[in-house]
Amino acid sequence: MDIKTASALRRLRLVSGPEAISFLLLLVCSVLKRTTEFNAVPVMGAVHGFLFVLYVILWADAWNRAKWSLGTAAFYFLMSVLPTGGFFAERRLKREAEDAVIASRARKEGVVNA
């Protein structure tokens, strides 16, 4: 994995957590709007909308650079529309990055998988 691909995956990973948190906060604000006089939906809606658009842009960049299959790309996109999906995407992206580092070190040391 080259440095640009690793950077693209890292950027996607870094935005997936805040995007998931903003989604959950937006859901809480929606409930509070209907049950109390508190209405933070316009603010949280804007924050979540910004983070969602940023996630989709970074997702497209990561898909292009990492050469994901359609199934992998669909999984990461689906994680952006599920309320807690960003947390799962973040963990899986972190695992993929760690595996890529291990594979890269093994190639440098001349270790070949049997």
TrEMBL record:
Pfam families, A to Z: DUF3817 (PF12823)
Subcellular location: Cell membrane
Chief site of localization: membrane
UniProt KW Cell membrane keyword: yes
Keywords carried by this UniProt record: Cell membrane, Membrane, Transmembrane, Transmembrane helix
Residues annotated as domain DUF3817: 9-95
Bilayer-spanning residue ranges: 39-60, 66-89
Keyword Disulfide bond: no
Record-linked PANTHER family: MEMBRANE PROTEIN, MEMBRANE PROTEIN-RELATED
Protein name per Swiss-Prot or TrEMBL: DUF3817 domain-containing protein
